[in-house]
Each structure stands twice: as structure tokens, then as C-alpha cells.
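DATA SHEET
Item: assembly model
Revision: 1
Owner: S.N.
Input lines:
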Amino acid sequence: KAGVTQTPRYLIKTRGQQVTLSCSPISGHRSVSWYQQTPGQGLQFLFEYFSETQRNKGNFPGRFSGRQFSNSRSEMNVSTLELGDSALYLCASSGLAGGPGELFFGEGSRLTVL
Amino acid sequence: TQLLEQSPQFLSIQEGENLTVYCNSSSVFSSLQWYRQEPGEGPVLLVTVVTGGEVKKLKRLTFQFGDARKDSSLHITAAQPGDTGLYLCAGAGTNDYKLSFGAGTTVTVRA
């Protein structure tokens, strides 16, 4: 069974640019969550999608957005990048509808903003 | 501020020693999970505890959920270099679909 796949693994952007990250969950999983991980703050919850609907949202500015497609694949977008957006962005999928059960994480997309 | 406070932040011990990591909160959780993350990888679930006072053992790892479901601990007996990693606790709220993570404890076991 293939795991959670995130692309790209690494990327470098400059301030003011925008970025789109992609996540393919485990086959059959309909819940996808996104987290931002930084050394100082740990894992911070961004949002969670289930069947194309955003069910929960963390305390991030509107520059952070996401969506989920009918095949459960998900994307997150960050617009007008700031230096503080440099982080590891982790996607996790879950097979439970009533969540949160076990989260299966991808390896992450490491974003560096210069 | 973190909803879940983990201590210590860093822990470095010799192979064969024991260690305990703590996870505390003022909030009540419906369940609490422990994950381990190794460099370059995403976190991997170790255990989920649901009932207050619950104790679960996974080989040399012992997990405990506080009676009030606000805190938890992870104890490793006779630590090995393979136990090295970032240990994260995560609490599930009673009404939502998100997990709140602690900042993590970085454990280094020296051979």
C-alpha cells in the first residue's frame, strides 16, 4: 500500500512569491490534514479536509489556503510569501470519517523563503 | 503558546539508561497519541491512549494517560540508539477533527 506522497520535497522561493504544495493520500483515505513544522513552534495545524470540504482550520492568515479534489488529493497554497513561512509542510491522511484517528504522514515539503 | 507542553525539550542519554518524556495540558482530550519522527521523515504513530489512567506497553516503551485525560508520559526502558528521534504527543479535542501537537522532545541515545 503506497504511503502519503508529497511534492515537491524541496523548494526555494523569494519573498512575495506564491507556492503550491501537493499531497496524495493513502488510497481510500478521505481525510487530509496539513501541518507546518518549525524548530521553534513544532507542528502547527493548518487545515483538514474531508470529501472536498474543509472541516477545520487552524490559526493561520488568509494567505494560507487549501483544497481537496474528488480523488482526495489535496493542495495547499501560500501567497505573498514571507521569510517566516520557511518551514517543513507536512500532509497527513486518515482513514476515519469521524476522526481524528491515526495520521499517516508524508515526508513533507521543505520550503525555504529567501 | 502550545496547547500541549512537552518536557524536557532535549534529552541525551547513554545506551541502556531509562528515560521519561512528559506531555501536559490544562485541556481535556478525548484521546492522546504519541508519534516518533526521524530526520527527513514524517512522524509515525506509536500509540493511542483513550481512557483516563490507561497504561499501554509496546516492548520497552510504556505510555500512560492521566486520570483526568490532561497529561501523558512516555517511558523507555533500556534505551537503544534506534530509539533516537523526535517524540511528539498529540491531543484530540472532544468536538473537532484536528490534533494539537506538542513541540516535541528530541531524544538522543548514545552508543
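QC remark: Residues 30 and 38 of chain B are 27 Å apart (CA to CA).
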